[in-house]
Amino acid sequence: MLQMTSVESFAGLLRRCGIADVHVDGARRAAYSSDASLYRVTPMAVVCPRDSDEVASVLTVCRDEGIPITARGAGTSVAGNAVGAGIVLDFSRHMNQVLKMNPDTRTAVVQPGTVQAVLQAAAAPHNLRFGPDPSTHTRCTIGGMIGNNACGSRTLGYGRTSDNVTELRLLAGTGEDLRLTSSVGGSTVRRPKNSAVLNNLQSATASGLATIRTEFAQFGRQVSGYALEHLLPENRFDVARMLIGSEGTLGLVTEATVRLVTEPAHRILVVLGYADIASAGDASPTVLEFAPTACEGIDSRIVDVVRQRRGPAAVPPLPRGAAWLFVEVVGDTMDETIDRARVVERGCGALDSLVVTDPALAANLWRIRADGAGLAGRSPAGLPAHAGWEDAAVPPVRLGDYLREFDTLMEDFGVTGLPYGHFGDGCLHVRIDFPLDMPGGTRVFRDFLLAAGQLVARFGGSLSGEHGDGRARSELLPLIYSTDALGLFAAVKHAFDPKNILNPGVVVDPRPFDADLRVPAAPLLRRNLALAYHNDDGNFTQAVHRCTGVGKCRADNTAEGGVMCPSYQATRDERDSTRGRARVLQEMINGTEVTGGWRSPEVHDALDLCLSCKGCASDCPTGVDMAAFKSEVLHQSYKGRIRPASHYSLGWLPRWAKIASKAPQLVNAAMQLPGLGPIALSSAGVDRRRTIPPFAKQTFRSWFAATHARRDVTGDPVTLFVDSFTNYFTPDVGIATVRVLEDAGYSPRLTTKQQCCGLTWISTGQLDGGKKILGKTVDALADAASGGSPIVGMEPSCTGVLRSDALELVNNDAARQVSEATRTLAELLTDRGWTPPSLRGTKVVAQPHCHHHAVMGWSPDAALLETAGAEVQRLGGCCGLAGNFGVEKGHYEVSLAVAEQQLLPAVSAADADTVILADGYSCRTQLADLTDRRGEHLAQLLSAQMGSDHNNTDPDDESTMTI
């Protein structure tokens, strides 16, 4: 490893060359130490170039200093294509624009860091699209797709990336700036006439034309190695197309012109059922006779996992069988498209079939494939599953037999995985549960990959069908290519990059594929943990390594109601993504680069802007729970030590609120005195721009006791968990909840004493105190739970603690009973079949609390509002306050930026009569701080429509006046 003084000196050299966005801090270097692969290589520095001139400057400095460069887009490479020991050049942060959209020529000019989904959004108004659509399309970049020659599900209809790029501008390793036009779309191939690089390339390949003709382009998904077939004279020496798929080893792309295609008028999905996955593979060549745009294969293994993780409703009814082909056909008219679908249905030998004309149902079925791909990070055996042999391809006519032998190979090695893939192209994806964390696991990995490589070679296949060779498969290239072909690869590499500074160790002179593996280098961390980590067998190392790096946390998931990851959306900094934080924690466990353990500055830097929203716990395909990791880190770091002021002020808020409730008006008045409020905020570790919410004049529990005699107690018993926020700040929410529950035929009851879930202790990492407080609460609720009485929470974050955190922190039978008994108000009402009051004509902007979304799910609330007839606009993302996060010093700007992603624009656009629905106290507080609107709880919205003649409350009764 380079000394830090050398790293800083090199960073200074880059900055003197005008390159501003250079990072050598430990947190960012750790965040970029891996991509979506098994490999761990900590870079010397991370550079985020702003334009092509900066790219050229970095290249010049690195070439002069002999420092390697690895180009990176979204870091979703699963073969170790985007990690390196020198400079990682992240194009996604600044060079991410669609520079020009030309509907007439159906082309677009993009920078390499442009996200595929951003390009699609720019093309959509013109009824155009970019053809290739990888499953990572919400975050993968066009530059990354060029690097790997990415394909996706619809390659049959639109081709590979190399079939859709008309012009490239790139810098060769020599520094030469090349502008190359490809033959795509019948264009004339153009290239510089006096290029030293291209002259050397032509000389290097002239003697190998026979080898190229006989070994390359044998079938469509032969992606391994360099695509030398494009250099043949009959293919017009098309250098641009050859460069696509070269994995950043030959040049750095600075601009690309891509071809766009028209969206078909109609799409129909045909689902074909087969006895097993190999039979589905056998049928794939027959499907191709009907010219589909897609032919994807899955089997019951992946369907079962989707049901298990997402619930039975996540999988619509499928045709009879244990494996399925998802076949898409398109047409100009619906009748024509249906006719084509019926022909496919009858002609492919399926056991059963389904023609899907409903776009919503088709989207749900496609989501099985998309979600399954993400969930494949866990094998059918429930073990961590890894990339490495996740992208092999064979000629489609041989796919069925290959699948049979591949299943046998996995059985022989005692490993499992969830196979799926682009069956129409003969491409199989699977992550496999190699025992990399066990003694001898690396040997198993090596032996398996060698055997799998020999198997795919025997079937005339390719080691990679779209992900590239990277560090995972480059060493295996001799299994499928001759010595002459390998010599041509080396000659091509030398022509473009004679000093071998561009992504060294990939394709040519490869690193051993079992070197630099991340998981074997991580010691187990099980002892003295505060949380149980049930899903990872008590192993913090395994929990942190749940992150496979697929990078969904970098995507904007808010349009679909997703939350993860609000801090990354605010800063666009990899360090502030769920993946980046997981990588830093992995480096902490490794201990060679991040050496300070739990108290490492790198760890605290990475976790500082984590909102503890828990969005990743539900939205991350592999179930990373960064909020839990942050609590554990804070617990371990400050155990027995002085903590930040906010841990005592905000972390002990229920304690202070209980004291303030003795004289709430006096406390409220004192906080309004000139100067006192800001001083109190600052000393408490709170940003001065925040306000102190007033305490209620009367607590909810006091109101409940005062009105007890007027309530009907003959209804079905339900235990109302009274959280500190409802009790001390917003008893109106509790009063409304009581009204609604009684209307639904329930008789609400409270615990004998005020209880607390310990949320604020948990979020500040005071887990010993949190466990003690939560344990008392669980004990107080245990009798109700064991007696069959439902427990209803009003504050979503506190309800989430009872449902989830109690299992991890208290970890006993009582906690499990309480968890199973705990319901949200909407869950309880919908399960009962209660008819809500009419909300027809009511417009609602709904901001689900992050923990509500992540732990309980907001679907019952949506269903209840739909039944009531409300017109609902559901927001995704986080409100930005997130409990203590948004009020702490140093977080205000990010809190505001998060609010501006969804909440503030929606509230600003809403008319005065629109209800802003926000069950979370922090969400309502953020609204009050940043807008002139006020949020309502679901109970308040329902209660307000039930009339004012309810027998338990009187609007003129002083006991109901709470503020």
Structure description:
The chain has 963 residues and is α/β, with parallel strands linked by helices. It has 41 helices and 24 strands. Strands 5-6-10-8-9 form a five-stranded antiparallel sheet. A four-stranded mixed sheet has the order 1-2-4-3, with helices on one face. Strands 13-14-12-15 form a four-stranded antiparallel sheet, sandwiched between helices. Helix 14 packs antiparallel against helix 15 (441-458) and helix 28 (700-706) packs across helix 30 (731-743). It is globular. Residues 948-963 have low confidence and may be disordered.
Summarize the main sheet.
5 strands, antiparallel
Number of helical regions: 41
Strand order of the largest sheet: 5-6-10-8-9
Measured on Cα atoms, how large is the radius of gyration? 30 Å
Distance between the termini: 61 Å
Query: Spans of 5+ residues with little confidence (pLDDT < 50)?
Result: 948-963
Mean pLDDT: 94
The count of DSSP E runs of length 2 or more, i.e. the number of strands, is: 24
- Estimate what percentage of residues fall within beta strands: 5-15%
The outline comes out as globular
- What structural category arises from helix and sheet content? alpha/beta
Q: Helical content, roughly?
A: 40-55%
What does this entry show, briefly?
The protein has 963 residues and is an alpha/beta fold. The protein is built from 41 helices and 24 strands.
List the helices and strands and how they pair.
Elements (H helix, E strand, L loop, with lengths): L3 H13 L5 E2 L2 H6 L13 E3 L4 H14 L3 E4 L14 E4 L7 E5 L4 E4 L5 H8 L4 E2 L12 H7 L6 H4 L6 E8 L4 E5 L14 H11 L2 H7 L23 H5 L7 E9 L1 E2 L3 E9 L2 H12 L5 E6 H11 L12 E9 L2 H14 L4 E5 L2 H17 L23 H15 L6 E3 L4 E3 L11 H18 L11 H4 L9 H14 L43 H5 L21 H6 L6 H13 L10 H7 L7 H5 L6 H13 L6 H5 L3 H8 L3 H8 L4 H8 L16 H7 L9 E6 L2 H5 L2 H13 L2 E4 L9 H5 L3 H20 L4 E3 L2 H14 L3 H9 E3 H8 L10 E4 L3 H7 L2 H10 L2 E4 L17 H8 L3 H7 L5 E3 L3 H10 L7 H7 L19
Parallel strand pairs: 2-4, 3-4, 18-19, 18-20, 20-21, 22-23, 22-24
Antiparallel strand pairs: 1-2, 5-6, 6-10, 7-11, 8-9, 8-10, 12-14, 12-15, 13-14, 16-17
Helix pairs in contact: 7-17, 10-14, 11-13, 14-15, 20-21, 28-30, 30-41, 32-34, 33-34, 33-36, 35-37
